[in-house]
Structure formats: C-alpha cells, structure tokens
Amino acid sequence: MRGGSVAVVGGSIAGCAAALAAARGGAGRITVFERTGARLRDRGVGIGLHNDRYEELRAAGYLTADMPWAPLSRRVWSVRNGEEPYGRSVGEQPFPFRAYNWGSLWRELRSRVPERVDYRAGAEVIGVEPDTDGVTLRLTDGHREHFDLVIGADGYRSAVREAMFPGAGTAYAGYIGWRGTASDVAGLPSDGEHAYSVVFPGGHCMIYRIPDGRGGHRLNWVLYTRPPQGDGLHPGPPGRLPAQLAGHLRALVADNFPPYWAAKVLGTPLDTTFVQPIYDVELPCYASGRMVLLGDAASVARPHIGGGSVKALQDATVLERVWRTQESWKDVLEAYDAERAAVGVAMVALARRMGRAQVENTPDWSAMGQPEFETWWQAQNGGSERNSGFGGHGIKGRE
Question: Quick one: average pLDDT of 286-300?
C-alpha cells in the first residue's frame, strides 16, 4: 500500500503514533485533527511501561532510550498500621516498569511526527460520514474534507467509533480515579525506585515517581474508590472535583493512609488534582469500511493493568507492519483487526477482574501477609502472571 489520503482524528499519544504508522507505511497525504489548541495540556500524570513492552516498542521505533523515564523495580502494597510512617507491608512483588510523564512522552512523540504531516491543532471533528470510497470529516467550522482512510485515535469519547458502532459508548465502572502529582519527593523509601499501593477498605492508591520534564522528579498518585451516593458527590465528566467529593476523598485519605503517604497526597494542591471516572469500552472489531480504531478509541481497559498507552503504541506498530505488507485498504484493515481486536477484549476482561479485586470487592487487607497476598494476586490474574497480560500483552511474534 502506497499513497492515498489519510486522516488521523486525535493528536495525543495515540494520534501521534498513528501518524507515524501511516507515514512509515507509505501514506501519501496525512492530516491529524486535534481538537485542543496550539498545544495539548501538559497533563503531567504518570504512565508505566513494562520493561518487556518497552523493548518491543523501542525495537519498532516508537520509543527511544533518550525519552525521560524513571526506573521502578518492585511494588509494595501497604496498609495503615497506627502511626508507622509508611504503614505495614501486606505484600511485595517484582515490578519491572519504566515510569514516564504523559506530557513529556507526548512531546517526544510529537517531535517525531514527520514535517510533511499536516498537524492541525484546534480542529475538532464533529461528523464522520463514510461512503463507498472513503470517509468525509466535518469540522466545527463547517469545513468538510474527504479521505481514503480515517484512523480514529480520538480517545474514549471517539467520534470515529460512534460512526462505526452507533451507541457503543463507554460504560461507567462505578468508581473513580482521583489523580494528582506532587512536587515534594523528599523521604521516598528505596530511593524512589519502588511503586507503592496504599490499600484501604474499598480501594487503593497507586504512588510512584515520574520525571518532571525538567531534569527532576514528581510524585504521581492515583486513588481508586467508589464515591458515595448523594448530591454533589457524583464525579461527572473528567475534570476538577466537586467540593463535596473533594472533602470526602480528603477525609478518606486522612483516616486510612499511613502518615507519610497521607501527607504527600493531602499536600498536593487541590486545584492541581482531577477526577477520572473509570470506564470500560469493548468492541467486536476495530475496522469498518475505510475506518479503523486505535488506542482508547478502540478499547478502554481500566488502568489497573498498566497497559493503556502501551496498547496504543502497539496498535500503531501493528498497523504500520500490515500497511507495509498488504495489497489493499481492505487487506490492511482486516489484518490489523484480526491481530488487535482480540488483544483489546482480553485486556478489558483482565482489567475488570482486577477492578473487582482491588476496588469493588477488596479483601481484609489488615489480615493479609505475603502468602495471602500472592494467592489473592494470582486469583485475579488467572494463574501465571507472565501470561496474564498485566503490563500489556506482547506484540504477536515478539512474545
């Protein structure tokens, strides 16, 4: 496949990876439509990449060693134990991950998008209209443009997905992630090379160090719990917390976290935190006509498996490979769908199991030690951790 016009809807990490895949695959004209303004908001939140998945993506040319990262080696699960600063460990496990900053990783990928790609910031797609030989996109300014192929990399609220599967939107999992990053990294145990999960009845909080994009580090954290019912406590769309919900979450931290970790979370300025409702998205296939989905537009797995950004980059890697080897648009999309759709289904299923175990139906953490922890962990992973998909599945042919 060479030539042709290609649109990428969405210009974040998934969109930049899709543009790279199209360029390397041989597309003739590539246009990226990103609805935000001149630059994406530097979200600054953390992304964890399993070392094995990093090596695959580095070999494929989507990640490089010079992208800023912080090493992680073990994950420690801790419960409050009186005034003990870090709490009591209920279990530890190997955690061979690399920690990235979303904003700096996006900037690195954006800088690698070829100059010939027309990257249009502030261009929001509000209509996706397929026909027999391509797809017409309609923008908020009324402009219409036709393409041979449209790649939906526009996240969990994907307009391209809605055109392919009307009504197949997101399903709220019933709980939220409260996210923030703190500048204070003083006193981190193990020189900051461990990830920590502070556990409490009805949830947990994942905490680890990430690069700050300026040569230093920040403390990234995300707390998962089910919000109580009541006016002012519903999370609404992703964004700033309602005041009453913020008060509830801060009280939860004060009552349940070991003192050191409570101080880190509660010391994060409230206006720099945000709430993220947790969703599931699962589709039967990733391609239809001249439209194809990539990243969160294709499937959304709850964040507990540490594979969301990995999967978006893997999707792009596979799309590039089949683009180079197939003879028609139809063959490209069928080959891509055959390889990636099943992976998305498996990741969503694993993430649901982990969400049930870690948020919806938490164990009695206070009674747990290393043997009980290992049994609990293996139950949600379905046996062998290596083959469970935690951290993302290996790319076909590279496992």
Answer: 96
pLDDT band at 39 (very low <50, low <70, confident <90, very high): low
Both structure tokens of 11: 């210009």
pLDDT digits (tens, 9 = 90+) for 157-207: 999 999 999 998 889 999 999 999 999 899 999 888 999 999 999 999 999
Mean pLDDT of all residues in the chain? 91
Give the residue-averaged pLDDT of 4-11: 97
CA-CA distance, 346 to 350, in Å (whole number)? 6
Per-residue burial over 271-285, b = 16 or more CB atoms within 10 Å of its CB, e = otherwise: eebebbbbbbbbbeb
- Give the Cα separation of 219 and 187 in Å (integer): 11
Element (H, E) at 15: helix 13-25
Cα angle value 328/330/332 (rounded, 5°): 70
Q: Give me the DSSP letters along 290-315.
A: TEEE-GGGT-B--GGGS-HHHHHHHH
Q: Which helix (H) or strand (E) holds 176?
A: strand 171-182
Tell how far CA 24 is from the center of its chain: 24
Residue located via tokens 């050191």: 260
Look-up: residue for tokens 């293996």? 378
Contact 106, 40 (CB under 8 A): yes
Residue of 291, 310, 292 lying closest to 301 (CA atoms): 310
**Backbone CA torsion sign across 365, 371, 376, 381:** positive
What residues contact 259, with CB distance under 8 A and at least 6 apart? 83, 84, 85
Helix (H, G, I), strand (E, B) or coil at 247: helix
**Could you tell me the two tokens for 170?**
């997101």
